[in-house]
Write a structure and sequence with these properties.
mainly beta, five-stranded antiparallel β-sheet, four-stranded antiparallel β-sheet
Length: 492
């Protein structure tokens, strides 16, 4: 019976993938985080505005509750999630794409709400949608499914994951299968039937535990794989039954950026801020002793070191999100004597030096699987922590904290440019593209628009005056940008 079910689902999946591919070309859809297959690319058939703001090329502006989820669009409806910190309420919202009016909002019945990172949100996971239904995930509760009119169809409750920084995994549709990275414990890739919410399979034994990066679909002969970047590695999971087809190790822990496909390659960002990076403090342990060892015991006592001493900067002038000594002291103090000695500092430094911080491009072998031998090119400078890479018109773009963009030839990694965008600060939203333009958003609320070119050509720097953490969506010649308290629609 199980084999029959798998065969039926496989046939349905193939049919739905064919339909979905046609639907993307014909309809106004941006069906999940960062659009189709998390690529961040819109059709190039309609002009997009380069200059915009509250008083320019603004079609509408709608007030929203707090949240970091990115717009999910199907036809004339936009789906988002939100969090009201005063009422401690989680919500799913549906907006009219033409007017921005809120058509409906539904409260998630979470008994308690998880505590996120200082820059995070309990409403960080983006929705996914198909022609009939919308699927949302809250770490505080689990999965919920509504029809487009807001009627609840099913729920799949999950225990709140135990994470250090809160959940932000977004569901992904593969035909009649809904995929979700559950952050555990135990961490797992889950597959559910979209009609009933029934669990089809759940792989809790992935060698590289899934986290924030969303699954990306890849066709390998007659098999559809979900590429799942997890803790220190990348796995390719057969979505029919959850088995691992191949796995690749040697990556950094706690990945955030999602891999992207393009030019017959898989592009993966491997980055952790304590690894080799231009953003780490260049002070040696001897420097720290010279500055802070007041009692001259050749140690850094907990009460000697300023708690806000920055060890890793995330590029914001106010230090928002920086990794400080007070945050990392417990991890560094291995013998728990409330002091750091040279051996502990050396141990941390040696461990950090082994982390493979790099942007890598892989090509599959003849059998469709990917191995270390498939590495085509690699770059190790100006790496993003949160924003996913963008493969567009034969180029691979990345943006890192501080507003530094790198542009490579996608096929061979040749660096076209690495330049400052003129919009500093931290970057959490991923770049998106359409109409020959690249849009990248700083946390401070500046959307920089570039020409897709081998040289840095800035069309405009559009300051929306509010924090941006969510990745914009592009549909039907319009750009949809979520700020701290609004959703904007921009168009010509």
């Amino acid at each position: 019976m199980l084999r029959l079910t798998v065969r039926v689902l496989t046939c349905a999946l193939i049919c739905n993938l064919i339909f979905f591919t046609r639907a993307v070309a014909a309809d106004a859809v941006w069906p999940q985080f960062r659009g189709a297959n998390a690529a961040g690319i819109a059709a190039d058939d309609q002009p997009l505005p380069g200059e915009f703001g509250p008083d320019r090329n603004c079609l509408w502006k709608t007030a929203l509750p707090a949240g970091h989820s990115s717009p999910c669009i199907w036809g004339e409806r936009i789906f988002l999630t939100g969090h009201d910190p005063q009422r401690q309420v989680l919500e799913t919202l549906c907006l009219d794409r033409t007017t921005g009016a809120i058509l409906w909002r539904r409260t998630a019945p979470a008994e308690t709400i998880e505590k996120p990172h200082e820059l995070g949100s309990p409403a960080a996971s983006s929705a996914a949608a198909d022609a009939q239904q919308v699927y949302v995930y809250f770490g505080s509760l689990g999965l919920l499914c509504y029809d487009h009119d807001g009627h609840e169809l099913w729920t799949q409750l999950q225990n709140p994951p135990k994470t250090a920084f809160g959940t932000a995994a977004s569901p992904v549709l593969a035909g009649n299968v809904l995929l979700l990275n559950y952050q555990g414990p135990p961490a797992a890739l889950m597959a559910l039937d979209v009609t009933s919410g029934e669990m089809l399979w759940k792989n809790e034994k992935l060698k590289y535990a899934p986290g924030y990066a969303v699954p990306v679909l890849r066709q390998a002969d007659d098999v559809t794989e979900a590429l799942v970047q997890g803790e220190r590695g990348l796995s390719a999971v057969d979505i029919r039954d959850g088995t691992v087809r191949w796995a690749l190790n040697g990556f950094a822990m706690m990945p955030i950026a999602t891999p992207v496909l393009g030019d017959d390659l898989i592009f993966v960002v491997s980055f952790h801020p304590i690894g080799p990076s231009e953003d780490k403090t260049d002070k040696t342990f001897a420097d720290l002793l010279s500055d802070y060892d007041e009692n001259k015991n050749r140690k850094l006592d907990a009460d000697e070191v300023p708690g806000k001493l920055v060890l890793v900067s995330r590029g914001h002038p106010d230090g928002v999100g920086d990794m400080t000594m007070s945050q990392m002291f417990g991890m560094l103090d291995r013998n728990r004597d409330k002091a750091l000695d040279g051996i502990e500092w050396l141990g941390m430094s040696l461990f950090a030096s082994t982390i493979n911080n790099a942007l890598m491009a892989y090509r599959a072998d003849a059998d469709g699987r990917v191995t270390a031998k498939g590495l085509v090119w690699k770059a190790d400078k100006a790496l993003p922590e949160s924003p996913s890479p963008l493969c567009y018109r034969g180029r691979l773009y990345t943006v890192k904290n501080g507003g530094i963009m790198s542009c490579y030839s996608a096929g061979d990694g040749n660096l076209h440019f690495r330049s400052r965008l003129g919009a500093a600060g931290s970057y959490y939203a991923s770049p998106v593209a359409g109409d020959g333009k690249v849009f990248t958003s700083s946390m401070d609320g500046v959307v920089v628009v570039l020409e897709a070119d081998d040289e840095l050509r800035v069309i405009a720097r559009n300051d929306l005056g509010e924090r941006i953490m969510a990745t914009p969506a592009i549909v039907d010649g319009n750009l949809y940008v979520r700020t701290a308290s609004h959703l904007y629609a921009f168009g010509k």
